[in-house]
Amino acid sequence: MTVTYPPQGAALGLSQIDTIEDREKELKRLLNAACYLCTKEFVPRKVRTCCKKIEDHCKKQFALLKDQPQLRTSIFFLGALKEVQRIILQDKDRKELWEFLIPHREGLQDLLNSENRESLQDLTVESTDLFLLYGNNLFLALLAVKEGLALSHIEVLWRIIAEWTFYQVGMSLQDTAVRTVYNFVSIISKLHTRARRIASISLPKTPSTQDQRVGVIYWEENDPVYDALFLLPQEDGTYLSGVIKNLQDTWLPPKYYPVITDGAALKNFADKALSSTSYTTVIMSTHEGKDILHLPAVDEADELVWISFAVKHGRPAGRHHTIPWLVLEHLPQSFDLGTEPDLPDSTLDMLAFMTQITYEMQQAKLLVSADEELEVFVVDIQTELFSEKREFSRTDDLVRFLQTPVWSATGYRTQRKFVMWDRFEDIAYDDGLSFLKPLVHRSWFFPDEYHYPPTCKEFLTTSTGEDVTLKPVHKERNSYRVKLDGIPQASLLRDLEQVELSKSQLCLLAESAELYDPKRRTMHPVELDVTAIIDEQFWYLHRYPRMSEALDSVDLSEFDWSQDTWEFSARLCYRREVSWSIYSPHKGRTWRNKTFSHLFLENVSVDEALDHFRRKVVEVVALNQIKGVEEKLDFFRMLLLERGWSEEQVREEDQEYSIEEGVEEDPVEQREPNFKVTRKEEFTGVHFVTGRKKQLVATFKSDQGDSEEAVVVHDVNRLAKDTEFSGRIYRERVKRSVETALVLFELEDSFLEDIHKAVEEALIDEGIRFYED
Fold first, then answer.
1. pLDDT for 121 beyond 80
2. Angle 184-200/20-38 helices, nearest 10 degrees?
3. What is the pLDDT of residue 118?
4. Number of H helices, E strands in the chain
5. Structure letter (DSSP) for residue 317
């Protein structure tokens, strides 16, 4: 599972931190942050000046390292990071904010478990102010957005991002199934949005005791995540209820939560909660008709504080008042609500009531079609146990039914069971019905401009109009317009050209493979031309297959590179492996949000390998369109020569064995196997062997009982470490190791694929992750 929020201190492992590598990466983060903030107009001028000084300083340090590699020491990077602190503290206002946050930054260690706190002192020999040395890119982010905010607001913003410091120091999540993705551009974007929201919020006063209502959240640990059953008290004495799954900790960060309301899940959780001691008492209050949730927490001085959230939720349903979704929005004010209240008896009564739930909910898949004979839309509801059909003559009635998960917490009651579905993932549409998607995915989708047949009869009697080409155009930061080619100027479809669309709205519109003109009662097939937005970043593209396919099919040579300034970014990961991307410092984004990978050619000179890499880059973009390519290639040349690459071509007969760095440092002696493996049945699986290194071994057994083993991965721990460092490794790296180890077995390609799959599955179980092809 991939997450984009900071790893929480209680879930972190602390084996080795504050290393030379960690300090070097921290200096690079500061350089990247300073370069990015220098270009942003929303950043105050004095902060941009400070960032420019930091940028110049960092570039100077890396230039020194390039000329004098022997300087790469812990003391060198300590001095470089200390100088960044000095630059920041040159300004009086920055110094005041720095001093204000010192106790909050130094107090970060209190979020660690006791074992990690004890180990912290032993691992930080040279730096006693570890949490002031690291995280100064986050401090710069705070400086960039703090204009006009009070210190109490800034403290709230710091708490949102502070735990990224753990990641930067070198700590890692103990749960290898969870991968934390660090992205400074995303961090600053969210911080900027939150700062604007905080500045505009009218805060309520501390609620009186009479306005306070006590509820509870019960926690259930399902290693490595937590599930939560919440009972949030309402003014009428009832409780909002439901289950939130897969939380990283016993805490609810502000965001949107889909809520599990299945009767069996609620009953099971309530049974356990009656005897559970793992719960948090919460307080609800109301201000100007809005619900506010207060959660207890402990500050740096081990004092109780209350963190407050504005609450929005779906419509309560059933006798248990379950809700289909919950949204929490952070309020910047801390309320003094006193000590944690006792758990009221009414919450236990509610749990006892929930243990009597008898209804169960089945997960369903839906297929939407149109019956030409009956002139109705048909929804085929399919579960593992049964299927059922619903018919609708009116489009609005159909859409409301398909949106059941949004407005009904109890799902839909069929003749046999309650059923529930995911409106994004679990609904399939027959040909011609994709126009329903925007209406189902969004409760409101441009009702005055987006037209659709009001009934199934009208849908079935529409004629086919001209083919339409929908061309999105990027208007400004997060706003798009579309141009529709191929239709008459007077067509009502032109109304869509006047609408400003967000990214998700644009993707939803693109999902409609037909557009309806109510004036002419025509349905127009739609093709997509997304050339103008090929470099845009789109999230959740798996929900929008038409947009995804259109972006993937664009001829890259048609992209207009002159509309922006682009820089070449590349990183040499291993001996032959390089990842590269094209970056816009002005817009702070990577082209198409895409990182390319390349393997340098073997058995050639270093210059031939770099020329081949240069040609691969040119296949995507002409070199005159991007900056920094030749400088980066010169740097790679130096690194490759240091790693033993030859300046002259290496003849194949002169090379006894070729091993990928990071898989095995020394040549491995190969011997002829005892028998030839000819059938897939002779492969009996893979297993790990621990010795000087942890290895993965493939085993074979013949019909005569002969056994044979081959080490297919020579250093599993190294792969795990590389995964931890970069997030993922390339499949090709492991594939070459397997094929090299089994070359004397003379296996067929299809047989090898089975072994590759078994090896990958074993490594994934060990926490090793691979880049997608």
1. no
2. 60
3. 55
4. 23, 32
5. B
Preceding peptide of 207 cis, ω within 30°:
no
**Could you read off the pLDDT of 653-709 as tens digits, one per residue?**
333 333 333 333 333 445 566 666 767 677 888 888 776 678 888 888 877 777 778
pTM greater than 0.70 (yes/no): no
Average pLDDT over residues 597-614: 86
Supply the pLDDT for residue 9.
44
pLDDT of residue 163: 80
Cα separation, 687 vs 731, in Å, equals 19
Q: Is the confidence at residue 469, as pLDDT, over 90? A: yes
| Partner residues linked to 368 by β-bridges | 379, 429
Surface-to-core class of residue 388, CB atoms within 10 Å of its CB (0-12 exposed, 13-18 middle, 19+ buried): middle
Which one-letter amino acid corresponds to residue 242? G
Predicted confidence at residue 52, as pLDDT, reads 92
Whole-angstrom distance, CA of residue 81 vs CA of residue 621: 36
Reference 727, options 597, 609, 622, 612; nearest CA is: 597
Work out the mean pLDDT of the chain and round it to a whole number: 81
Class of residue 743 by CB neighbours under 10 A (exposed 0-12, middle 13-18, buried 19+): exposed
**pLDDT, average across residues 399-404:** 91
3-state SS assignment for residue 101: helix
In the chain, what are the helix, strand and coil shares in percent, each to the nearest 5? 40, 25, 35
Residue 552 CB-density burial (10 A; 0-12 exposed, 13-18 middle, 19+ buried): exposed
Angle between helices 345-354 and 263-273 (to 10 degrees): 140
Taken in order 75, 80, 82, 86, is the CA torsion positive or negative? positive
Read off φ and ψ for residue 346, nearest 5 degrees: -65, -30
d(CA 256, CA 327): 4
CA distance 173 to 164: 12
- Phi and psi, residue 408, nearest 5°: -125, 120
User: What string of H, E and C letters represents the secondary structure of 574-608?
Assistant: CCCEEEEEEEECCCCEEHHHCCEEEECCCCCCHHH
Nearest by Cα to 17 from 123, 121, 100? 123
**3-class SS of residue 327:** strand
Tell me if residue 570 falls in helix, strand or coil.
strand
**What is the pLDDT averaged over residues 425-444?**
92
CA distances from 143 to 27, 98, 201, 207, 220 (A): 18, 10, 20, 32, 39
Residue with tokens 């010169």: 634
Please give the helix or strand (H or E) that residue 76 lies within, else none.
helix 74-88
